[in-house]
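User: Structure tokens for both sequences below?

Assistant:
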Amino acid sequence: MITFTTKMLRGAITATALMTATAPLASAEVLTMSSWVPPTHFIHTDFLVPLTEKIAEVTEGRVTVTILPAPLASPPQHWELARTGVADITWGNFTYEPERFVSLWFAEFPNAGTNAEAQSRALWQTYQTFLADNAAFDGVKMLAVGMFGGGQLHHGSKSVTSPDDVKNQKFRMGGPIQEKLLSALGAVPVAAPATKAYEMLESGVIDGSLHTMESVVNFRLEDVLKYHTVFPKGFYDATFFVVMNGAKWDGLSDQDKAAIEGIIGEELSAAWGRNFDLQSPAAIEKLAAEGHEIVEASPELVAAVDTIYDTMVADWIGAAKGAGVEDPQAMLDFYNETYTALAGE
């Protein structure tokens, strides 16, 4: 016969077992991540998801990250989402807010390189050495920075190799640095996100568009961009961040912060770049196989871009000093030297 006391004892044991089993879940820190690319994009599948998995792994499940099913705001608002704590972790492009991040313009100028892993590692080292205490970056924990290995020039109907080929052509672009570059070459810059490129090309609103080689494929623009002009050191670039709300980071235990520190920083920045380095050669191979024309910019066009680059750097040095960078030229030199060394490894 089961007595009342036995029933109570069994109930107590069961309740204790349930509490023990659910205790780790109850005490876990669940972080939210807002991302603005679709779940099929390689940034999501090959970079963001592995990051969430690594965070859970190194903290033994004490910290987990949930990627939200839809972004909480437009891409340019993602820095503020993290800084204000609307989302715990976000990523985005620094020059979506160009005035806030004047200090980083140099890395989006021409000739920043075509090895994305080396670029991203060099940019991380540059940030740590020169910018970590800059007020523009207050309020967040920087998890990684990244670049994409050199954007190039793409046209829908003709080969573009000389300065004259660029003049008066309407090119979609995404930011103020690209706008200045195109304007200086005599082209007509048209501001629009990459997601609008297909319809703009198909309707004749633009003649060409600025992209990395991989984004021609990943944005499915192969049918409307058939001509690709490659600059050996990159025509332009883009700088990216992965950040966490500063207060949320400070609220983690010392044990978990130490564990996460081991997988972020330069290591995570390198992982960002490696993903782009894998994507671009595959894209070039695919486009070539489909009969696209892929040519190098002529020496005359490269020289024209180099002249514009010198002017852009001179203008940026004054702006960067106004943004709190003590010696912008030293920072630029450090980035270039670091990139060259890392790219040669």
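Moving on to the next sequence.
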Amino acid sequence: MNTPEIPAQSQDSMPADEYKMDPAPDYAPRHPGVGKLRDKVALITGGDSGIGRAISVLFAREGAKIAIAYLEEDRDAKETQRLVEEEGGTCLLISGDLGTKDHCEATVKAVIDEYGQLDVLINNGAQQWLDEDFADLAEDKIDRMIASNIKAYMFTTQAALPYLKKGAAIINTSSINAFAGKGSLITYSMTRGASLAFSRSLAGNLADKGIRVNSVAPGPIWTPFIPGTLPADKVENFGTDTPLGRAGQPWEVATAYLFLASSDGSYYTGQTLHPNGGKVVGA
């Protein structure tokens, strides 16, 4: 697969905006839908852009009704909603801070009020920034990262559990950095390690209820995380250090979530898939 070169660029916000990226991330599904998620309802946090957008569009193509939760990126969220509707689906938009338990509960309630059920929960929303000078990292930044990347996953799952029935799926986004570590992303890597451990532990807790819990640990993927985290010169040619020699695109990661959410992945729980361009890490 040939992908366009990534020029130097940077954004001064986190979460960053997909509509500002050059080239635009590739979210588009590659194959016709066959109804793998027909009559299912999926809540996708961080669904406005990046991997979350690709998941939303792919799930809609496979017949799911979509709800996306995001912080405040309204322009990106409305574009994702439009793309889902182009697939013949419906897309509920829910904005706000999932780092608070009250909002997580309100988000799940909004999904139930709109659709009457919840079958797939994708805990994907997160924040990331460099913390190279770890000794001077401010307490409020650590708290913000933990709220976004750990508490949000736990609170949203707690709110969803009363509505998840046998056959439901929970998929948590982890990262290659949970396995390999990253010296300039210490706090982020810590939180992705937490989402990995959360997935494995919760899988054992819910197995007797017939609810599967898995994770996906992407490598370098061209999403708003990248210009929102790295200085412009570090963004240029992002991902070329992988064995495949390029960054991954969101659509190439979304297929892992579809596999785990659908009956294709019915014998998978407590597992992790690794779309990372060929970097070998621990299981």
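User: Anything stand out in the second?

Assistant: The longest strand covers residues 65-70.
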